[in-house]
Design goal:
Blueprint: E1 14-18, H1 47-59, E2 64-68, H2 78-86, E3 93-98, H3 103-113, E4 117-121, H4 127-134, H5 139-152, E5 158-163, H6 172-181, E6 185-190, H7 208-216, E7 222-223, E8 235-238, E9 245-249, E10 262-265, E11 270-272, E12 280-282, H8 284-288, H9 293-305, H10 325-328
Parallel strand pairs: 1-2, 1-10, 2-3, 3-4, 4-5, 5-6, 6-9
Antiparallel strand pairs: 7-8, 8-9, 10-11, 11-12
Helix pairs in contact: 1-9, 2-3, 3-5
Residues 23, 25-27, 30-31, 69-71, 99, 121, 325-326 line the site of iron/sulfur cluster.
Protein backbone atom coordinates (compact mmCIF):
# COMPACT_ATOMS: atom_id res chain seq x y z
CA UNK A 1 0.00 0.00 0.00
CA UNK A 2 1.18 3.48 -0.79
CA UNK A 3 2.74 5.22 2.22
CA UNK A 4 1.91 8.71 3.45
CA UNK A 5 4.95 10.72 2.37
CA UNK A 6 4.81 14.48 2.09
CA UNK A 7 6.21 16.93 -0.44
CA UNK A 8 9.44 17.20 1.58
CA UNK A 9 10.01 13.43 1.75
CA UNK A 10 8.89 13.17 5.37
CA UNK A 11 7.25 9.87 6.18
CA UNK A 12 4.04 10.45 8.12
CA UNK A 13 3.54 7.59 10.52
CA UNK A 14 2.14 9.34 13.59
CA UNK A 15 -1.42 10.47 14.20
CA UNK A 16 -2.49 12.55 17.19
CA UNK A 17 -6.15 12.39 17.94
CA UNK A 18 -7.99 14.86 20.10
CA UNK A 19 -11.02 12.91 21.29
CA UNK A 20 -12.72 15.77 23.09
CA UNK A 21 -12.54 19.51 23.61
CA UNK A 22 -13.88 19.11 27.17
CA UNK A 23 -11.55 19.36 30.13
CA UNK A 24 -11.70 19.14 33.91
CA UNK A 25 -8.98 21.82 34.31
CA UNK A 26 -8.56 25.34 32.93
CA UNK A 27 -4.83 25.86 32.53
CA UNK A 28 -4.02 29.53 32.10
CA UNK A 29 -1.98 28.98 28.93
CA UNK A 30 -4.67 26.87 27.35
CA UNK A 31 -8.13 28.09 28.35
CA UNK A 32 -9.93 31.12 29.74
CA UNK A 33 -11.39 30.69 33.27
CA UNK A 34 -14.91 30.09 32.00
CA UNK A 35 -13.65 27.48 29.52
CA UNK A 36 -13.90 27.68 25.77
CA UNK A 37 -16.98 27.66 23.64
CA UNK A 38 -17.62 23.97 23.33
CA UNK A 39 -18.11 22.16 20.08
CA UNK A 40 -21.62 20.77 19.82
CA UNK A 41 -21.73 17.07 20.72
CA UNK A 42 -23.16 16.11 17.37
CA UNK A 43 -20.13 17.64 15.68
CA UNK A 44 -17.65 15.62 17.70
CA UNK A 45 -16.58 12.44 16.01
CA UNK A 46 -17.97 9.21 17.35
CA UNK A 47 -15.44 6.61 18.37
CA UNK A 48 -16.25 4.44 15.38
CA UNK A 49 -15.50 7.40 13.12
CA UNK A 50 -12.06 7.86 14.69
CA UNK A 51 -11.47 4.12 14.35
CA UNK A 52 -12.34 4.16 10.68
CA UNK A 53 -9.80 6.91 10.03
CA UNK A 54 -7.11 5.14 12.03
CA UNK A 55 -7.69 1.86 10.19
CA UNK A 56 -7.28 3.62 6.86
CA UNK A 57 -4.22 5.54 8.09
CA UNK A 58 -2.68 2.32 9.42
CA UNK A 59 -3.05 0.76 5.99
CA UNK A 60 -0.82 3.54 4.71
CA UNK A 61 1.96 3.36 7.23
CA UNK A 62 0.71 5.07 10.38
CA UNK A 63 2.05 3.01 13.28
CA UNK A 64 1.82 5.44 16.19
CA UNK A 65 -1.27 6.98 17.67
CA UNK A 66 -1.45 9.38 20.58
CA UNK A 67 -4.81 10.15 22.13
CA UNK A 68 -5.19 13.58 23.63
CA UNK A 69 -7.74 16.36 24.10
CA UNK A 70 -9.08 18.42 25.92
CA UNK A 71 -8.79 15.85 28.64
CA UNK A 72 -9.19 12.42 27.05
CA UNK A 73 -10.06 10.68 30.30
CA UNK A 74 -13.25 12.72 30.70
CA UNK A 75 -14.80 11.26 27.58
CA UNK A 76 -17.13 8.35 28.32
CA UNK A 77 -16.09 5.02 26.84
CA UNK A 78 -12.44 6.00 26.47
CA UNK A 79 -11.14 2.64 27.76
CA UNK A 80 -13.15 0.64 25.23
CA UNK A 81 -12.04 3.04 22.49
CA UNK A 82 -8.38 2.62 23.41
CA UNK A 83 -8.79 -1.15 23.43
CA UNK A 84 -10.22 -0.98 19.89
CA UNK A 85 -7.38 1.28 18.78
CA UNK A 86 -4.79 -1.05 20.26
CA UNK A 87 -6.23 -3.93 18.28
CA UNK A 88 -5.89 -2.21 14.90
CA UNK A 89 -3.34 -4.05 12.76
CA UNK A 90 -0.26 -1.91 12.26
CA UNK A 91 -0.72 0.32 15.31
CA UNK A 92 2.19 -0.68 17.48
CA UNK A 93 2.58 2.38 19.66
CA UNK A 94 -0.46 3.71 21.43
CA UNK A 95 -0.05 6.45 24.02
CA UNK A 96 -2.09 9.06 25.83
CA UNK A 97 -1.57 12.62 27.04
CA UNK A 98 -3.47 13.47 30.20
CA UNK A 99 -3.54 16.06 32.92
CA UNK A 100 -3.42 13.15 35.36
CA UNK A 101 -6.42 14.14 37.47
CA UNK A 102 -8.24 10.86 36.74
CA UNK A 103 -5.14 8.77 36.15
CA UNK A 104 -5.06 6.92 39.44
CA UNK A 105 -8.58 5.70 38.87
CA UNK A 106 -7.95 4.72 35.23
CA UNK A 107 -4.32 3.52 35.08
CA UNK A 108 -4.94 -0.19 35.56
CA UNK A 109 -7.73 -0.27 33.00
CA UNK A 110 -5.68 1.79 30.55
CA UNK A 111 -2.89 -0.75 30.78
CA UNK A 112 -5.30 -3.64 30.32
CA UNK A 113 -6.82 -1.91 27.29
CA UNK A 114 -3.43 -2.02 25.58
CA UNK A 115 -2.10 1.47 26.21
CA UNK A 116 1.68 1.45 26.26
CA UNK A 117 2.49 4.63 28.15
CA UNK A 118 1.25 8.01 29.32
CA UNK A 119 2.45 11.59 29.19
CA UNK A 120 1.25 13.52 32.20
CA UNK A 121 1.17 17.31 32.17
CA UNK A 122 2.39 18.83 35.40
CA UNK A 123 3.72 22.35 35.74
CA UNK A 124 4.17 22.80 39.48
CA UNK A 125 4.79 20.73 42.57
CA UNK A 126 3.41 23.45 44.82
CA UNK A 127 -0.27 23.16 45.64
CA UNK A 128 -1.00 26.91 45.47
CA UNK A 129 0.78 27.38 42.22
CA UNK A 130 -0.74 24.27 40.67
CA UNK A 131 -4.09 25.78 41.57
CA UNK A 132 -3.14 29.10 40.00
CA UNK A 133 -1.87 27.50 36.79
CA UNK A 134 -4.63 24.98 36.28
CA UNK A 135 -7.45 26.62 38.26
CA UNK A 136 -7.94 23.20 39.88
CA UNK A 137 -6.89 21.99 43.31
CA UNK A 138 -5.80 18.58 42.06
CA UNK A 139 -2.05 18.34 42.60
CA UNK A 140 -2.24 15.36 44.95
CA UNK A 141 -4.47 13.46 42.51
CA UNK A 142 -1.93 14.00 39.74
CA UNK A 143 0.96 12.84 41.93
CA UNK A 144 -1.04 9.75 42.91
CA UNK A 145 -1.79 9.18 39.24
CA UNK A 146 1.92 9.23 38.39
CA UNK A 147 2.65 6.61 41.05
CA UNK A 148 -0.16 4.42 39.84
CA UNK A 149 0.89 4.71 36.19
CA UNK A 150 4.37 3.56 37.15
CA UNK A 151 3.01 0.75 39.30
CA UNK A 152 0.85 -0.71 36.53
CA UNK A 153 3.63 -0.39 33.95
CA UNK A 154 2.47 2.50 31.76
CA UNK A 155 6.12 3.25 31.25
CA UNK A 156 8.19 5.23 30.79
CA UNK A 157 5.95 7.71 32.60
CA UNK A 158 6.66 11.06 30.99
CA UNK A 159 6.00 14.32 32.78
CA UNK A 160 5.51 17.36 30.58
CA UNK A 161 6.23 20.70 32.20
CA UNK A 162 5.45 23.90 30.31
CA UNK A 163 7.88 26.48 31.64
CA UNK A 164 6.75 30.09 31.81
CA UNK A 165 9.14 32.77 32.98
CA UNK A 166 8.16 34.34 36.28
CA UNK A 167 5.55 31.68 36.83
CA UNK A 168 7.16 28.32 37.43
CA UNK A 169 10.76 28.60 36.21
CA UNK A 170 11.99 28.43 39.81
CA UNK A 171 10.84 24.80 39.87
CA UNK A 172 12.84 23.61 36.87
CA UNK A 173 15.56 22.09 39.01
CA UNK A 174 13.17 20.40 41.39
CA UNK A 175 11.47 18.72 38.43
CA UNK A 176 14.82 17.55 37.06
CA UNK A 177 15.70 16.06 40.43
CA UNK A 178 12.62 13.83 40.27
CA UNK A 179 14.47 11.87 37.59
CA UNK A 180 17.14 10.97 40.12
CA UNK A 181 14.74 9.21 42.43
CA UNK A 182 12.05 7.97 40.04
CA UNK A 183 12.23 6.44 36.54
CA UNK A 184 10.24 9.38 35.19
CA UNK A 185 11.12 11.14 31.97
CA UNK A 186 10.76 14.81 32.86
CA UNK A 187 10.35 16.91 29.72
CA UNK A 188 10.39 20.67 29.52
CA UNK A 189 8.22 22.21 26.86
CA UNK A 190 8.68 25.72 25.60
CA UNK A 191 5.67 27.93 26.12
CA UNK A 192 3.95 28.28 22.76
CA UNK A 193 1.73 31.00 21.30
CA UNK A 194 -1.91 30.01 21.16
CA UNK A 195 -5.08 31.94 21.19
CA UNK A 196 -5.60 32.32 24.95
CA UNK A 197 -6.55 35.23 27.13
CA UNK A 198 -3.30 35.00 29.02
CA UNK A 199 -1.43 36.50 26.09
CA UNK A 200 1.79 34.93 24.91
CA UNK A 201 4.91 37.03 25.02
CA UNK A 202 8.18 35.93 23.56
CA UNK A 203 10.04 36.86 26.74
CA UNK A 204 7.89 34.55 28.88
CA UNK A 205 9.20 31.60 26.90
CA UNK A 206 12.40 30.13 28.27
CA UNK A 207 14.31 28.26 25.59
CA UNK A 208 15.43 24.67 25.89
CA UNK A 209 19.03 25.83 25.82
CA UNK A 210 18.46 28.17 28.76
CA UNK A 211 16.68 25.44 30.68
CA UNK A 212 19.52 23.00 30.16
CA UNK A 213 22.03 25.60 31.29
CA UNK A 214 19.99 26.23 34.44
CA UNK A 215 20.13 22.54 35.33
CA UNK A 216 23.77 22.04 34.40
CA UNK A 217 24.85 24.84 36.68
CA UNK A 218 24.01 22.38 39.44
CA UNK A 219 24.81 19.00 37.95
CA UNK A 220 25.97 17.74 34.54
CA UNK A 221 23.63 15.96 32.17
CA UNK A 222 24.68 13.19 29.79
CA UNK A 223 22.99 12.60 26.43
CA UNK A 224 20.79 9.52 26.10
CA UNK A 225 20.82 7.94 22.68
CA UNK A 226 19.12 4.56 23.16
CA UNK A 227 15.62 3.97 21.82
CA UNK A 228 13.99 3.19 25.19
CA UNK A 229 12.07 6.43 25.38
CA UNK A 230 10.79 6.00 21.84
CA UNK A 231 11.73 8.21 18.93
CA UNK A 232 10.38 11.65 19.55
CA UNK A 233 10.89 15.33 19.60
CA UNK A 234 12.72 15.60 22.95
CA UNK A 235 16.45 15.97 23.28
CA UNK A 236 17.14 13.47 26.01
CA UNK A 237 19.64 13.52 28.89
CA UNK A 238 20.28 11.80 32.18
CA UNK A 239 22.10 12.59 35.39
CA UNK A 240 24.85 10.10 36.19
CA UNK A 241 23.27 6.82 37.39
CA UNK A 242 19.76 8.33 37.51
CA UNK A 243 16.79 5.98 36.92
CA UNK A 244 14.92 8.65 34.97
CA UNK A 245 15.71 11.21 32.31
CA UNK A 246 15.20 14.83 31.46
CA UNK A 247 14.29 16.00 27.99
CA UNK A 248 13.85 19.29 26.19
CA UNK A 249 11.19 20.00 23.60
CA UNK A 250 11.81 23.20 21.74
CA UNK A 251 9.03 23.95 19.26
CA UNK A 252 9.72 27.68 19.53
CA UNK A 253 13.49 28.11 19.59
CA UNK A 254 14.71 25.14 17.56
CA UNK A 255 11.82 23.63 15.76
CA UNK A 256 11.95 20.05 14.60
CA UNK A 257 9.90 20.54 11.46
CA UNK A 258 12.50 18.82 9.28
CA UNK A 259 11.76 15.50 10.94
CA UNK A 260 8.07 16.07 11.64
CA UNK A 261 6.20 12.81 11.08
CA UNK A 262 2.75 13.72 12.33
CA UNK A 263 -0.76 14.65 11.40
CA UNK A 264 -3.38 15.80 13.89
CA UNK A 265 -7.05 15.04 13.97
CA UNK A 266 -9.28 17.36 15.96
CA UNK A 267 -12.30 16.14 17.90
CA UNK A 268 -14.61 17.68 15.31
CA UNK A 269 -12.98 15.80 12.51
CA UNK A 270 -10.51 18.21 10.96
CA UNK A 271 -7.11 17.06 9.83
CA UNK A 272 -4.44 19.60 10.77
CA UNK A 273 -1.22 19.55 8.87
CA UNK A 274 0.85 21.41 11.48
CA UNK A 275 0.27 22.54 15.06
CA UNK A 276 0.88 26.11 13.98
CA UNK A 277 -0.95 26.16 10.71
CA UNK A 278 -4.66 26.86 10.59
CA UNK A 279 -4.98 24.82 7.43
CA UNK A 280 -7.61 22.20 8.21
CA UNK A 281 -9.11 19.52 6.04
CA UNK A 282 -12.62 18.44 6.90
CA UNK A 283 -12.79 14.68 7.10
CA UNK A 284 -16.05 14.51 9.10
CA UNK A 285 -18.16 15.41 6.11
CA UNK A 286 -16.79 12.49 4.12
CA UNK A 287 -17.34 10.16 7.07
CA UNK A 288 -20.98 11.18 7.33
CA UNK A 289 -22.10 11.53 3.74
CA UNK A 290 -21.61 7.91 2.84
CA UNK A 291 -18.23 8.43 1.16
CA UNK A 292 -16.15 5.36 0.49
CA UNK A 293 -12.92 4.49 2.27
CA UNK A 294 -11.14 5.55 -0.92
CA UNK A 295 -12.54 9.06 -0.52
CA UNK A 296 -11.48 9.22 3.13
CA UNK A 297 -8.05 7.94 2.15
CA UNK A 298 -7.80 10.65 -0.50
CA UNK A 299 -8.34 13.28 2.21
CA UNK A 300 -5.51 11.81 4.27
CA UNK A 301 -3.22 11.98 1.26
CA UNK A 302 -4.34 15.54 0.59
CA UNK A 303 -3.50 16.59 4.15
CA UNK A 304 -0.08 15.02 3.87
CA UNK A 305 0.50 16.74 0.55
CA UNK A 306 -0.45 20.10 2.09
CA UNK A 307 1.79 19.70 5.12
CA UNK A 308 3.91 22.84 5.29
CA UNK A 309 7.67 22.61 5.31
CA UNK A 310 7.83 24.33 8.70
CA UNK A 311 6.48 27.02 10.95
CA UNK A 312 7.97 30.36 11.83
CA UNK A 313 6.83 31.02 15.35
CA UNK A 314 10.31 31.98 16.49
CA UNK A 315 10.62 34.66 13.86
CA UNK A 316 9.00 38.03 14.10
CA UNK A 317 6.30 36.98 11.70
CA UNK A 318 4.79 34.41 14.04
CA UNK A 319 1.07 34.43 14.40
CA UNK A 320 -1.02 32.80 17.05
CA UNK A 321 -3.10 29.79 16.17
CA UNK A 322 -6.75 30.57 16.01
CA UNK A 323 -7.54 27.47 18.07
CA UNK A 324 -6.19 26.83 21.55
CA UNK A 325 -4.22 23.72 22.32
CA UNK A 326 -7.25 22.09 23.92
CA UNK A 327 -9.03 22.25 20.59
CA UNK A 328 -6.12 21.16 18.45
CA UNK A 329 -4.98 18.40 20.76
CA UNK A 330 -1.50 19.01 22.15
N1 LIG B 1 -5.47 17.73 28.87
C1 LIG B 1 -4.34 16.95 28.54
C2 LIG B 1 -3.10 17.51 29.21
O1 LIG B 1 -3.12 18.64 29.70
O2 LIG B 1 -2.09 16.77 29.20
C3 LIG B 1 -4.11 16.81 27.06
C4 LIG B 1 -4.33 18.00 26.19
S1 LIG B 1 -3.24 19.36 26.50
C5 LIG B 1 -3.83 20.54 25.33
C6 LIG B 1 -1.73 18.76 25.81
C7 LIG B 1 -0.48 19.48 26.19
O3 LIG B 1 -0.50 20.77 25.64
C8 LIG B 1 -0.26 19.66 27.68
O4 LIG B 1 0.99 19.07 28.04
C9 LIG B 1 -0.22 21.15 27.85
O5 LIG B 1 0.66 21.51 28.87
C10 LIG B 1 0.24 21.59 26.50
N2 LIG B 1 -0.05 23.01 26.21
C11 LIG B 1 -1.26 23.64 26.19
N3 LIG B 1 -1.11 24.95 25.88
C12 LIG B 1 0.24 25.13 25.70
C13 LIG B 1 1.04 26.28 25.37
N4 LIG B 1 0.52 27.48 25.17
N5 LIG B 1 2.39 26.11 25.28
C14 LIG B 1 2.95 24.89 25.49
N6 LIG B 1 2.25 23.78 25.77
C15 LIG B 1 0.91 23.91 25.90
FE1 LIG C 1 -7.12 21.01 30.00
FE2 LIG C 1 -4.81 20.03 29.12
FE3 LIG C 1 -5.65 22.48 28.34
FE4 LIG C 1 -4.89 22.11 30.84
S1 LIG C 1 -3.59 21.89 29.02
S2 LIG C 1 -6.76 23.18 30.17
S3 LIG C 1 -5.52 20.08 31.24
S4 LIG C 1 -6.60 20.55 27.87
Amino acid sequence: MEKLIDAYERKIDYLRISVTDRCNLRCVYCMPPEGIELIESKDILRYEEFLRIVRIAADHGVTKVRVTGGEPLVRKGIIEFLAELASIKGIDDLSLTTNGVLLKEYAQRLKEAGLRRVNVSLDSLKRDRFLKMTRGDNLQQVLDGLEEAERVGLTPVKINMVVIKGFNDDEVLEFAMMSKVKPYHVRYIEYMPFNTQEGWQRDKCITARELKEMIEKVEPLFPVTDASGGAGTARRYRFKDAPGEVGFISPVSEHFCGSCNRLRLTSDGKLRTCLFSDNEIDIRKALRDGSSDDAVEALLFRAVKEKPQGHQINENIFKKCSRTMSLIGG
